Amino acid sequence: MSQSFNAFLLLPAIHPTNGPAPATALHITTIPKPVPMAPTTALVKIKAFGLNRMDLLQRMGMYPVPPQAPSTLGVEFSGTTEEFGDGGRQGFEVGDEVFGLAYGGA
After folding, report:
1. 18-23: long-range contacts at Cβ-Cβ below 8 A with a sequence spacing of 24 or more?
2. Could you tell me which residues come within 8 angstroms of residue 49 by beta carbon, excluding any fewer than 6 positions away?
3. Which among 20, 22, 50, 80 would be 20 to 30 A from 56, CA to CA?
4. Which of 32-36, 45-49, 96-100 is predicted with the least confidence, judged by mean pLDDT?
């Protein structure tokens, strides 16, 4: 049986599975493309992200995931703005280069 999907709706991500494990157990998987829901949110096309000590401790079960945060890892990021929640531009335009810290994984 073959499975078809729209590649533009799935994105690569560092995602923990099977409970706590060491950093050597990290793997890349695909997740559904998020949609900016809140008025002050933006979807950023990630060009680079970083895994830091917090991410690795989170993977080992030694650092709690913030409430309502996704389980993907890598909070530091850079990229370009792609889409905004209603009224969420706040001076930004589609295609602007940005960097920051994500609430949960980038």
Report:
1. 19/61, 20/59, 20/60, 20/61, 20/62, 21/59, 21/60, 22/59, 22/60, 23/56, 23/59, 23/60
2. 74, 75, 76, 77, 78, 106
3. 80
4. 32-36
Token pair, residue 100, equals: 């920051």
pLDDT at 10 (0 to 100): 65
The residue with tokens 């049986």 is 1
Determine the Cα angle at 8 with ends 75 and 47, to 5°.
Answer: 35
CA separation for the pair 62, 104 (Å, rounded) = 15
Q: What is the pTM of this model?
A: 0.74
Two tokens, residue 98: 């940005």
What mean pLDDT value characterizes the chain? 79
Residues 46, 79 contacting (CB under 8 angstroms): yes
Q: Which two tokens stand for residue 97?
A: 């280069």
